[in-house]
Amino acid sequence: MSNYAVMSQTEPVAPRGAAVDQTEAVPAKAHLRAEGLAIAFGGQHVLRGVDLDLTGGQIALLRGPNGCGKTTLLNILSGFLKPDAGTATLAFNGTRVNVLRETPNRLARLGIARLWQDIRLFPTMTVLENVLAASPHVLGINPAVALFALGRVKRQERAFREQALRWLDLLGMADRAASSGDKLSVGQSKRVAIARLLQTGAQVLLLDEPLAGLDRESAEKLVHDLNRLADTTHKAMLIVEHNHDAITSVCDIRLTLEDGRLHREELEGKQWAC
Amino acid sequence: MQILINGLLQGVLLGALGVAFSLVYRTTKVFHIALGGIYAAAPFVLLTAMQSGAPLILSALFVILAAAGLGVLIEETVHWPFERKRSPAAVHLIGSLGAYLVLVQIVAVVWGNETRVLREGIDKTWSAFGVTLSQAQVLGPAMAATAVVILFGLLARAERGLELRALADNPVLVALLGRNVRALRRWVFGLSAALAAIAATAQAWDVGFDPHVGLKAVLHGMVSMIIGGAGSFVGPFVGGILLGVLRAEVVWFGSARWEEAVTFTLLGAFLFFRPQGIFARRARLEEGV
Amino acid sequence: MNYVFHLLIYFEIYAIVALSLNLLIGYGGLLQVAHAAYYGIGAYTAALLWTKLGWGFFPGLAVGALAAGVLSLLVSLPAWRFKGDYFVMISIAVQTLIYAVLYNWTELTNGPFGISGISRPGIGGYTFVTTSSVVVLYGVLAVGLGLVMAFLKWSPFGRALQAMRDDDLAARSVGLPVDLLKLQAFALASAMVGIAGGLYAAYVSYIDPTSFSLNESILMLSMVIIGGTGNVRGPLTGAAVLILLPEALRFLYLPDAVAANVRLLAYGLLLVLMMHLRPQGLAGTYRYQ
Asked: Most buried one in A53, B135, C59, C200, CB count within 10 A?
């Protein structure tokens, strides 16, 4: 139960029982800061002292050769791997979270959520259910509440459904809402996964190759939409992407991971703001 | 001293089971519950062969070959079709459970549910340094140990062994190298079944048997594998010996009633506190899951 | 006619068992092999409260369910760490431990001799003496619990379980409290099968540990897998098959000595065939992805 208690403290935007609507409410800026992150697998040092500083509204491109540890860094920041050394904190609305001590599911609720390189939709669920499953602070996830507070659960579910459909619409997947999660092309799955990510309401998004598998037109639209989200809702994004050309134009920061260290370049303003 | 020796001898049989179980588990990722069916059937086949008048050595050879054949049959009818369909691990597990039920119940229908013995009369015993051992108590484990050593020799020396070990570590690579994965898998199931049959008849010769001993035997094989670590072929054998000694001590100092409970508490403890054998070195998330 | 009522009562009890196991296997993807142990905890707790302390029917039943629910921590805490084959092994270990306690804690459970003289269910002053009245009472309870299960499937709780079943890592990454969900699923399912255990005890008036052994757990698992999981219809079909299969086998005019064996043999064959032809079972939806 303490889980729920802590969650609600760090969620100032949402009124009780209502879905978070990121398109309208503009929360304060989140601030993710990591220092000296190091990790080794079987004696092989993958990260050796990585520093990172990311503020709400910023988009950072993370690049580097294959196997240099980009995904590993994402895994650490999303709570799936514990590093050997280093610190990471998320400051958001006056609360500070020690990122390295939280579990992945708590981090997603506290504000850091990630997109998987291998997409990982829930295959037996529909597109809409996939997105709904990521809703934050669901009352009916407690079986007792689901059974005995039916009315409140139903109202909340209706709000979640509207929000989920809005995200799917933004990503051009609203007409496939009833399709099964395993009956989609790679590009479509990716867009559903992004909708699912947005449904979590997290303020820091870690995106592992969001453009892979998307055709040029959809990629451009997605980049445009991500940029708009960063501007209007102050989401911070850390994007691993090989298709640098498609995304550099909207990035504020370019991070290059090489030999376990991260080099940071501030980019000269966005080339096309919306 | 007596207890320690008893435990060691018992442990050799458990170790052989651990090797038989982990041979399949390490190489094919099949959780081989049906091995319990083969374990249960082996002494009955030996009994019938001996009753038909065949000499012991010939009967024993026949049992080992029959068991190997049964192991291959299970692979052919259950696991290989699943593997080709890329069925998930749970399907293999349930299929194996089904095969176990089929084998054990066939044995029960054919030979009845009663407890049987293989040898007649009182066994020859030897005494030295205050330790008394019966012939059955020594010969069985000696046979099982020999079989395990031969198997290890096979795994270490012959090319087949090298391929088997590669199959364990990277089946796709083995296929890409043009090796016949299907034939290798047959060998694995056959060898594992033969080893289990040897352990089964050795145990049956000592203490008697009924159709329902198989599941417990397989469970002991699993526990041996966990204790010794699933990362090598030798580990489970050592694990089995440790388990045998511990069980003998429990029976002596505590009570036989809690023997099983202690075995499985040990399993839980090992899984929690010494899981190195199970989970390989920490890997990147994608590899580890 | 009484015989039909008798079968109906067994169907109702097994329907509750199957539905509760389905919550774990079908909704949560957790292959639980200790279910008979929790059935036993419910039965023993209720039976002891009724016979030793003279408690009423429903209070005893409720505390039995509570005991099973609390003790489900024995499997749900390990489930945080172990998945797939290793979890199956843990649950077999828990099954063996609980069985050892039921069998060996003679001061409390009367060991292998069991508890006799359990009285029929009663509410207030009314006792359900006739078989037909028990059919009605158990039917109402089974339908009620079935509705709860159907409702939970469509609730956000069911959706979260399904997400966890489909992809544990992805579920965590979108903020689902996977560990808490496992605790809740095991507690609910174990409490529910605990109720079924209490109902069984009150109907047959005598219980001993053999009804709660590993073999019973395997039977329960087979029932649910053959019927199918992931919805409500599948487990009910499984319970019906479990009740009707012995009746169908009656027409083979088998001698009594092998009838039980042939039944289990049929189960084993069905398990293997199902995994080949219809992994989702006769009427289920979950295909063990």
From this structure: C200
